[in-house]
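Reviewer comment 2.1 asked that we show a complete input and output for one of the modelled complexes. We chose the UFG case, as it is the one discussed in the main text.
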Amino acid sequence: MPRRFAILVTGGAGFIGSHACKALHQAGYLPVTVDNLTTGHADAVKWGPLVHADVRNAAALKDAIKNHGIKAVMHFAASAYVGESMARPAFYYDNNAGGMISLINACLDTGVDKVVFSSSCATYGSPEGGPIREDTPQAPINPYGRSKLMCEEMLHDCSAAHGLRFAALRYFNAAGADPEGDLSERHDPETHLLPLALQATSGRRGPLQVFGTDYPTRDGSCERDYIHVSDLARGHVLAADYLAEGGASTALNLGSGTGHTIFEVLETIRSVTGKTVPHDLAPRRAGDPPSLTADPRLAQQTLGFRTERSRLDQIIRDAAPSFGLAAAREDRHGRHAAE
Ligand code: UFG
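Response of the prediction step:
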């Protein structure tokens, strides 16, 4: 496949960034990772060079852009724990908003005019009334979400003033792992539901705490829209293609469009692995909205993006091996049978 062009991937050593690098490579782009390796893993950078630098170091970004002939950037590098952001807001604004302004300045100084930005459904806050559309008012309820909204606003203003074009991709809950086993989810500390539940199932940690059972949902637990990380990665490639073809700045949801409660997740893990997830009921976690589900249609219309592996049982089947769990065989009717 002819090489398209080099793309700077900040946070390319992280969970979503590394999957995006693989997808970019498969699509013929050269991903050039910039990562400070505080939460990312050098051994996840497999499809292009690694520049070890902090995204707030604009001089290092400019050098990387010039040295590698970068034509577009994908910006993943950020702190991404909602709970931590409540305890350390200044750190979140410094790293996330500070990182964004550093990257924008590096782009403006070097003539790079295309940015794919890792935004979040956390920018919507806690909206009521079913699937969330992109024109739902953005009213974040924690510093993490506010820092991501600030980044969108910076991009919006710089798009108007300088002709920078961007795609802000508002992810719902990224989960799963590379189906070919090249990459997995490795956060330390781990705070996300699916890896924690799989670790509890495999006996690698104690019972999962189910945070809150009195939410206004069908079974009282929080509802989320889980999207396979490989689908998310493909969405980024489509966004890069879209900007390369001259597409206008846009903000798009990337989600499956289907919500699952925590108890539904636990039941799906049981049906896929044949093992019950040990769990305890616990109080609500501060900052958690009851229900977040995407209306995914605008990304379908704008990018032609459709999820392919984001059925919850498929996400769990792909993630299970990296937690030492075997997925049960699936018959041709999609039913699971013990191995
Ligand atoms: N949960 C538990 N027990 C746990 C961990 C999580 O019950 O041990 C619950 C949470 O309370 C929540 C759901 O599982 O209801 C999902 O929690 P995650 O921490 O996996 O994900 P979040 O929905 O909190 O956060 C994710 C990303 C953020 C992003 C956010 C948008 O981690 O970066 O989605 O809502 F901003």
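Residues 89-110 form the longest helix (22 residues). We note this here for comparison with the apo prediction described in Section 3.2.
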